[in-house]
Design brief:
13 strands, 13 helices, single chain, 2 domains, alpha/beta, 16% strand, Archaeosine Trna-guanine Transglycosylase, Chain: A, domain 4, 393 residues
Length: 393
Amino acid sequence: MVTSSGSVNSASSIGLICDGYVRVGEGRGVAMRVVVKIGSSSITDDFGRIDQGAIVALCAQTAAVKSEGHEVIIVSSGAVAAGVSAVGLAHRPSDMVTLQAISAAGQSRLMGVYNEALAAHSIVAAQVLLDPFDFVNRRQYLHARQTLERLLELGCVPVVNENDAVASSELRYGDNDRISALLAHSVHADVLVLLTDLDGLFTADPRTDPTASLVNHVAADDPLLSIDASRTGSGRGSGGMASKLIAARIASWSGVRTVIARASREQVVVDAVGQREVGTTFDAHDRRLSARKLWIAFAAESAGRIVVDDGAREALTTRNTSLLPAGVSSVEGDFDEGDTIEVVSRDGVVFARGMVWLRSSDLREIAGMRTSDLPSGMTHEVIHRDDLVLMPT
C-alpha cells in the first residue's frame, strides 16, 4: 500500500512479497493491480442502449491509472441490456433462453465500444468471458489466471464479463459483482472498485428515505459486511447493493480493499485507486481465505441446511473441529455429497457454510449418533474442517 506521501507501508510490502507479486512502478512507488466493475445501469440509457460517453469516460480514467504504472482489469456488465435494444425488444426478458440469445447480440456491440474507447489511448482491449466453472475447477482457475496475467504483461486491459450466452441456468452467477470479487482474489488485486448508480452504501435507501446518509468507511470486521441490503436494482441489470456487499465481503476476505462509488462521479476510479475519499471504502481483512473456501463461503449456492446443537457450534467456532453426526439436530432440504450447505445454530443464525460429505437422506438417519454407534462404512464426518468456513454473525 502507498501512503499519501508516496512511502510504502512496510506490513503491506511484506504481504506483497509473500504473495510473490512485487510490482514496482517507475519511480512512483508500488504499482497496484486494480479491478474495476461497472454495472449495466451505469453504461446503458433508459432504453437499454449503450451509453458510449460513459464507457469513454471509464476508459479515459483507466488510461490515467495505467499511466501511473498500475494494471487495470475492467469487469463490465451490459451485454444483455445492449442486446435488448439491438434486437428491438421493449424490455428485458425473464426466460433464460432469450436472455442468453440477446447477450450474444449485445456482447459484440459492447466490446466494439470498449475497443474504440481504449484504442483512443493506444491501449488494446482484450475480451475475456468467464463462468463459475472457471473458479470451481482448479485447472480452469489456473488457466484463466495465467491468461489474465499474460494479458496484463502485454499491456492490455482485459474486459471481463460472465459468459451469459453459454452458461447453464444451474451454474451461473447472474451478476458481475461476485465475479469481480473472485477475480480480484485470483489475480492478487490490491483494490476492487465497484461502480454503481449510487454514491456508495447508505444507512437506508436514499431513493425512498430522505434521512439516509452515506457510510464512508467500513472496517474489516464491521457488521455492515453481513447485513442484508435491498436487492432492488435499476431493472437494466441483475445486481443491486446486496450483491455489492457480498462482493465487498469476498474481496475483504481476500485481502483486497474495496470501494463502492457512483460511476458518473468525475475521476471516480482515479480517486479510488489514489485512496482519496470517494464513496464507501471497505478495508481489507487480515484473514485471507483460499479460493476453495471463498467458493464455499460466497460463490456456491446453498443446497440445504444443517441445524446443530450448542456443543457442536462451540466446537466448530472455537476449536476448529470437523462437524460430526452427534452434533446434528436436524436436516433441512435435499442435498448430495459435495454440495454446499449452511450450518445453523438452534436460534436460527447461519454461522458457517461447508461442503457436506453425506447425502441428506443418509444424514437424517444418523443425525445425533455418536461416532461409535455409526453403521459400518459410514463416514464419521459430516463436514471436514478444511471444507468449513465460519461466517460473520
